Amino acid sequence: MALFELTLILLLIAVALTALSRRLEVPYPSLLALAGVGLAFVPGAPTIEIDPELALALFIAPVLLDAAYDTSLRDLKRYRLSLLLL
Known about the structure:
Helix content is 77%, strand content 0%. It is built from 5 helices and no strands.
């Protein structure tokens, strides 16, 4: 299977797990981590090597954007000094 199809399947699985996490009322990162661990132990699963820039564009940037939308302004005000020092 080509990298594009494999990446598309993984993204669809991630979306499905996110929807499932809302129904189960558990944090979605925990389900995504468990799915990643489960995929790592599947015998015969293809080895996926993704270019770091592709991973940044496809996975990390959307997660950061989602976290930014979920951040409360009260917390930002409360921790502004710590955030500025970072």
